[in-house]
Amino acid sequence: KDLEAVDPATIEKVSNLGLSPGATQGLANDGVLVYAKEASDRHLKVGDTLAMRLPEGGVRRLRVAGTYTRGQFLWGNYLVSLKTFESGYPIQRSDPVLVAGAPGVSEQQLKATATAALTGFPSARAQTPDEWQKEVEGFLNGLLNLIYALLGLAIIIAVLGIVNTLALSILERTREIGLLRAIGLGRRQTRAMVRSESVIVAVFGALLGLVVGVFFGWAMVRAIEELTQFAIPWSRLAIFVVLAAVAGVLAALGPARRAARMDVLRAIATE
C-alpha cells in the first residue's frame, strides 16, 4: 500500500498528519503529498514534479505539494486528492473512512451512530482510534508469539545439536579422556569438563543469535517505525543467555555421564 486518496478540504479536520505549511492547498490541482522520509530518500522537495503511472491515463506528472510526518502506516508514502485518484483508478474503494464528531460528541456516541449507519454493509465496521490501535497491536503481538514459538523450536533443535556434537567429540577423544583419567582426572572433574564445553557452545551460540536478532529487529522497526519504537530489552536478553547456559548443562548430562563412566584401560588402548 503506497498510494491513497484524501479530501483536501477535510483531511486536516479528521487526521493529524503533521503536514508541511500549505500542503493541502496544492493537493487539489494535480498535487501529491509525500511522506517526509520517502521524500528525503528520493530527494524530493516542494515544487518538484513526480511522474506516477496510474492504471488509467498512463503516466501522470504530479507536483509535490508538501510532506507529512505522521500516518505513514495508515496512508502509505503518497497522498493524492480524490479527484486525481478517481481519474486514474477504474475501481474505487474507501479504506479507511475517517469521521469527526461535532463538539461535545464522545467517541462512543460517534461509534454507535456510525455502527447504525453501517448496518447494510457487513464488511465495514466502526472503530475508535484506541480500538484500531489495539487491533494493530494484537496483530503484532500475534506475530511476536509466533516468533517465540519458532524460537522454542530452534532451542530444541539446538540442544539436540549440542548433544550430538558432544557425543561425537567424546567418541573422537576417547584416548585423550582415558589418558586424562589415568593421570588423575576424577569422574566429577570429567563431567565438569564436558558440561563446561557444552555451556560455552550454548552461550556462544546464544550471544551470536542475540546480535543477529537485535540487528534484524532494528531493521524491522525501521520498516514500520510509524507504530514501533526501537528498544533493546536488556533484562530479557540476559534471561535468554542464562537459559542458554541452563540448556547447555542439560544437554551435557548424557555425554558427561558417558565420559565419566568410560573404562580407563580400554580408552587408552583405543586407536
Walk me through this protein's architecture.
This protein is of the alpha/beta class. It contains 11 helices and 5 strands; from the N terminus they run βαβαββαβαααααααα. Strands 1-5-2-4-3 form a 5-stranded mixed beta sheet. Strand 3 (49-54) and strand 4 (58-68) form a beta hairpin. The longest helix has 44 residues, at 129-172. It is elongated, with a radius of gyration of 31 Å. The mean pLDDT is 83.
Number of strands: 5
Q: Give the C-alpha Rg.
A: 31 Å
Percent of residues in β-strands: 5-15%
Low-confidence stretches: none
Structural class by SSE content: alpha/beta
| SS summary, helix count | 11
The average pLDDT score comes to 83
Distance between the termini: 66 Å
Strand line-up of the largest beta sheet = 1-5-2-4-3
Largest sheet: 5 strands, mixed
What order do the helices and strands follow?
Answer: EHEHEEHEHHHHHHHH
Portion of residues within helices: 55-70%
Overall geometry: elongated
